[in-house]
Amino acid sequence: MYSLARTLKTYSFLTVLIALMGLWAMTAAAQDAAPPAPASANAGAAQSAADSPKDEAKATPLPSTDTRASRVSPLMLPDGYVIGIGDSLDISVWKEGELSKQVSVRPDGMITLPLVGEIKAVGLSPNQLQDQLTSALSKVLSDPQVTVIVIGINSLSFNIMGNVLKPGYYPLVRPVTILDAIALSGGFRDFAKEKKVYVLRTTPDGKQQKIYFNYKDVIRGRNMAQNILLEPRDTLVIP
């Protein structure tokens, strides 16, 4: 009788234990299926503070419109370069748009600008012309700031014409001999008179000088003094 009572008591205990374990399992499953809790109010406030405009990177301020822009010549001018006939100039007067012009040097060596009129440019360096324009404008403007930039070198050129593959004008911004010029022009065409090449050069007194060049002699190493350096506005003729 005692054993039966003890067995029934043990069975009841196991039944209660199993029921409690089942209830715990159901509770754990319900917690896993529940959505995540919303962020706390403090976390939201912290995010708002992070997005606050006061923490944004400040934009770099634009330069003042009173700042003078730097101007750089697009051309590599040789040392001691002086302005010549046909050169193109960009003349800028700071804060004076109507006075800022692009001009070409006329055959008489002059240029014309508003408030200045005609002024000689040939034979001056860009800086010298800049100083002269500043001096002239100082009579009508307060503290003018002038910049002169050579944007087209047309005075430093030579011409090749006749029986070559590529006749035309070529820049003369470095030393160029007659042989160099022939190579630049692509060489002779058929039937070119290679022994009768010559250079037409205008002398200071305005006369035309003819300088002969025998290509056959020079390439054989004879009379090399013929292979002279070309000068601005020379014309190399290949008959």
Label this structure with key terms.
single chain, 239 residues, alpha+beta, wza like fold, Outer membrane lipoprotein wza fold like, 3-stranded antiparallel sheet, 5 helices, 28% helix, 21% strand
Describe this structure in words.
- With 239 residues, this protein is of the alpha+beta class.
- Among the domains are: 88-152, wza like domain (wza like fold); 157-238, Outer membrane lipoprotein wza fold like (Roll).
- The chain is built from five helices and ten strands, in the order ααββββαβββαββαβ.
- The chain has a five-stranded mixed sheet with strand order 7-6-10-8-9, with helices on one face. A three-stranded antiparallel sheet has the order 2-1-5, with helices on one face. Strands 3-4 form a two-stranded antiparallel ribbon.
- β1 (88-93) and β2 form a beta hairpin.
- The termini are far apart.
- The model is unreliable at 38-46 and 52-70 (pLDDT under 50).
Shape designation = flat
Strand order of the largest sheet: 7-6-10-8-9
Tell me about the biggest sheet? Answer: 5 strands, mixed
- Secondary-structure element order, as H and E? HHEEEEHEEEHEEHE
